[in-house]
Specification:
By secondary structure, the chain is α+β, with helices and mostly antiparallel strands. The protein has a domain of about 60 residues. The protein is about 30% helix and about 30% strand. Strands 1-2-3 form a three-stranded antiparallel β-sheet, covered by helices on one side. A hairpin with a 7-residue loop joins strand 2 and strand 3. The longest helix has 20 residues.
Length: about 100
């Protein structure tokens, strides 16, 4: 129901040895966000330590995303249309339960 603020999409590349083993050779990771200023950050890596570099990169992304999401910003004022819709609401838009005097 609520948009996810961040998502990481990753793709690994590999080569197949003569014995049939898949050996990772690189990865690409794309960060997508509902916040335009943090959207579409692309990272690529090719080398011999693909899995280690991927885990290191994802950990860095987690730290940065946690920092972004932990900031406490003031709410934007409601527009007139939003205020009217809020005041006229009879049910919760999240749980779809009717409002009562106690909630």
């Amino acid at each position: 129901m609520f948009p996810v603020p961040f998502a990481l999409y990753a793709d690994f590349e590999s080569f197949i040895t003569p014995s049939g083993e898949h050996v990772p050779s690189g990865f690409c990771c794309l960060r997508v966000s509902k916040f335009p200023q943090y959207d579409h950050k692309i990272h690529t890596y090719s080398g011999s330590t693909v899995v280690q570099e991927f885990l290191k990169y994802v950990t860095q992304e987690q730290t940065e995303i946690d920092s972004i999401l932990s900031s406490n910003n003031s709410m934007n004022p409601l527009t007139e249309r939003e205020r009217l819709a809020h005041n006229a609401a009879m049910i919760c838009s999240t749980c779809e339960c009717k409002f009562t005097k106690s909630n």
